[in-house]
Amino acid sequence: MSVVLCYRGREVTEADVAFVQELIARHPEKSRWALSRELCRAWDWRQQNGALRDMVCRGLMLALHRAGRIELPPVRRRPPNPLVTRKRRPPVVVDETPVCCRLRDLGVLTFRQVRRTDLEPAFEGLMEEHHYLGYTQPVGEHLKYMVFAGDRPVACFALSSAPRHLGPRDRFIGWSKEARRQNIRFLAYNTRFLVLPWVTVKHLASHLLGRMARRVSSDWEALYGHPIHYLESFITPSRHAGTCYKAANWRFLGLTTGRGKAAPTKRPNRPKKEVLGLPLTKRFREILSSVG
Question: What's the pTM value of the predicted model, to 2 decimals?
Answer without folding.
Answer: 0.75
